[in-house]
Design brief:
heterodimer; A: mainly alpha; 15 helices; globular; disordered C terminus; B: mainly alpha; 2 domains; two-stranded antiparallel ribbon; 4 helices; 50% helix
Chain lengths: 459, 147
């Protein structure tokens, strides 16, 4: 285990299982009844979801006065959670689309799960802009449709860009994920013995017959989709950052925001993927498909993006000073030394300091260590959004309008509920669909491609 | 390699192979002999198969290009019409047709239109193969072998 040969690519799938064994390995959890542990986990996440639902019910009944938002801090947990969850989603698309275009074969084992995580995270995130408007039932106004007022949405507003970006992102991620699932639905259809399941899988597999003529179109479509998902994922967090960067609030009005947000999103998303896959590979006995090498590679990405985020923190400070704008400089000094300094230093230590431990190979390959660091990264990234939103707003140009932001129990309830929703969906996913792409893993097992290509995927 | 007759009247062959090399060679031979109404079923895409089978490259990319451009053009036109023609409003002293500000929405609509049309076209192609009835439907053994 310790002597890893870095001079050649480690096998993506360990132990060279027979192709039929891969079916069994991946599809077995779908045939068995859920275990007691599954129900315990589900009851925990459903309880969290219920807490969120009750808090949301209070909010909808009494209005957003239930929250800690005030003047001058008009954005609070609602937008923090939105940015946090959108960020979590980004790792999934990075793994499934960008690593696909870069021909990184190791992505196959983790892509399906990461994509599912993307969809659930974006679904969770999508709730927050709606509830933060206070009157969810008027959410239809966000879309341009011919209404009685003869009014259109303001297409020059970053908030409208956000509506388009997030809804496109959710749709495209879902379609991309579903296209990946088609051959696996067909595999499940061919192996199941239950009539009901056979009908469901047959409908879902859309007439797939594993024909080479289908594969040809399929591969083309998959490549095109990956080609679109790649700029899409970069655009989504760029546009989310425009919500801030296009305003004139000191601390938000910075051009570094788009790349800084994208790097931070990938950073937090990978931390979430690492944490969840640690459990998934254990619970579903997928140690051969999701190997320690996968984790090491993901930890390297966490290290790289963590350094980018750290660079952005430093550069923000430098530019605040270099710009010579007093208000800008004050915001940053206030972040590091003001009343919310604790949140700033939580952010810096979790996002910049602790990930440095991944320079050590032992830590990159140690499951408990990476779990703790990934958890800290997610905490740090949540606080990053807290710092950006709350510290920039609470003390602006006029000292007479300064204020403090104290979140209420309802705020925390909705935050807990968002985790409940995300994990409930993930748990249900693990029991209903194959958590690993069966056909993609088969294609990267040693010896699965014709020998005249020398085992390489592409000529 | 096993060869089975499907019925008394010979109108097709089905063969199972144990290795990707085997089916690749067979597909090449079949195509070289001038057969066009044949198909290969594999549990995952075997690379180089389209060349061996002599099938033309997929034309899906044209669908993507057409609908992507159409979606982008319509989005841009629609934004221009709403913001500058139907209900012109001066917001922050900015021009009525600020091109850079329309960039994000145009991009998102291009991606959405291109993706959905590509997938719809792909699914349509799954069902529209003319040689469908000639191909015996594979039943079992396909998950790990090559038909």
């Amino acid at each position: 285990m310790n002597a890893v040969d870095y001079t050649k690519e480690p096998p993506v799938v360990e132990g060279r299982p027979a192709l039929a064994d891969i079916d069994e390995m991946v599809a077995r959890p779908l045939d068995e009844r859920p275990t007691k542990k599954f129900y315990i986990a589900l009851s925990i996440t459903l309880t969290m979801l219920l807490i969120g639902a009750v808090s949301l019910g209070y909010t909808l009944f009494y209005g957003i006065g239930m929250w800690g938002n005030n003047q001058p801090v008009g954005w609070g947990f609602d937008i923090i959670n939105f940015v946090f969850w959108v960020g979590i989603g980004h790792a999934g698309t990075l793994i499934s689309a960008i690593l696909f275009l870069l021909r990184q074969k190791w992505r196959t084992g983790i892509a399906r799960f990461a994509e599912a995580m993307t969809i659930f995270a974006v679904m969770t995130a999508g709730l927050f802009p709606l509830i933060h408007t206070g009157r969810v039932w008027l959410a239809g106004y966000l879309f341009p449709y011919p209404n009685q007022h003869h009014l259109w949405v303001n297409f020059t507003s970053p908030l409208v860009w956000d509506v388009f970006a997030v809804s496109t992102y959710l749709t495209v991620s879902f379609v991309f994920w579903y296209v990946g699932l088609i051959p696996d639905f067909a595999t499940l259809r061919d192996r199941t013995k239950s009539t009901v399941k056979k009908v469901i899988y047959s409908v879902c597999s859309l007439g797939w017959r594993h024909s080479a003529r289908h594969w040809q179109h399929y591969e083309k479509a998959y490549m095109l989709l990956a080609g679109f998902a790649t700029p899409l994922v970069l655009s989504v967090h760029t546009i989310v950052s425009f919500d801030f960067a296009v305003s004139i609030i000191p601390g938000w009005h910075t051009t570094i925001f788009p790349p800084y947000f994208v790097a931070g999103a990938i950073f937090s998303g990978f931390a979430m993927v690492v944490k969840i896959l640690i459990f998934v590979r254990k619970v579903f006995d997928l140690e051969d498909i999701i190997t320690i090498n996968h984790f090491e590679k993901m930890n390297k990405i966490i290290l790289v993006t963590g350094l980018m985020v750290g660079y952005a923190y430093a550069m923000e400070f430098f530019i605040a000073w270099y710009s010579g704008v007093n208000a800008e400089l004050f915001v940053f000094i206030n972040r590091a030394l003001g009343p919310y300094a604790w949140s700033y230093w939580i952010m810096v230590s979790c996002n910049v300091v602790f990930p440095q431990l991944f320079w050590f190979k032992k830590i990159r390959r140690s499951i408990p260590a990476m779990f703790v660091i990934a958890l800290l990264v997610n905490v740090g990234m949540w606080f990053e959004r807290f710092v950006i939103i709350v510290t920039s707003l609470h003390r602006d140009f006029l000292p007479s309008s300064w204020g403090m932001y104290i979140p209420t129990l309802t705020d925390f309830g909705i935050l807990i509920g968002s985790f409940g929703l995300f994990f409930t969906l993930l748990l249900l996913f693990t029991k209903t669909l194959p958590v690993v792409s069966i056909s993609e893993v088969k294609a990267v097992v040693d010896g699965s491609q014709p020998s005249r290509h020398g085992g390489e995927t592409h000529e | 390699m096993e060869v089975r007759l499907m019925s008394k009247i010979l109108y097709g062959y089905t063969a199972l192979f144990d290795s990707p090399d085997g089916i690749m060679a067979a597909a090449k031979k079949t195509a070289d002999d001038g057969f066009t109404k044949f198909d290969v079923h594999t549990p995952y895409p075997v690379h180089g198969m389209d060349k061996a089978m002599k099938v033309k490259p997929s034309k899906l990319g044209f669908v993507t290009l057409f609908f992507g451009l159409l979606g982008g053009a319509l989005a841009m036109l629609f934004m221009y019409w709403t913001m500058a023609v139907d209900y012109p409003m001066v917001i922050g002293g900015k021009p009525l047709f600020p091109l850079p500000a329309f960039g994000p929405v145009t991009f998102e609509v291009i991606v959405l239109a291109a993706t959905l049309s590509t997938v719809a076209a792909m699914i349509a192609l799954f069902f529209s193969n003319g040689y469908r009835r000639q191909t015996p439907i594979p039943v079992t053994g396909l998950r790990s072998r090559y038909l």
